[in-house]
Design a protein that fits this description.
Strands 1-2 form a two-stranded antiparallel ribbon. Helices cover 22% and strands 15% of the residues. By secondary structure, it is an alpha+beta fold. It is flat and about 80 Å long.
Length: 87
């Protein structure tokens, strides 16, 4: 349940970011109409949604990469023990 809620929050944040950054434009093309009192008729609004086109690819290039070396060394680490009540 938390995963679904978290995914929903992420989707909403991505939509807000897309609108704010101009990657997504939403134009309402038809106004909504409430149904009549007899609960007949009515329709949902229609929208034209235009999104930014994103092209993803790779390119071959040469860059400088730092060389990292490691060494093994003996060190003293702190030790913590917890005695729970009743044990």
């Amino acid at each position: 349940m938390r995963a679904i809620l978290g995914l929903g929050v992420i989707v909403v944040l991505l939509l807000i970011a897309g609108l704010w950054l101009g990657l997504l434009r939403v134009d309402q093309t038809q106004q909504a109409e409430l149904p009549k009192v007899s609960v007949s008729g009515g329709h949902a609004p229609k929208f034209d949604v235009q999104t930014a086109k994103v092209a993803v690819g790779t390119t071959q290039t040469t860059i400088e990469v730092p060389k990292v070396e490691t060494e093994t060394k003996a060190v003293n680490l702190p030790k913590v023990t917890v005695d729970k009540p009743g044990q």
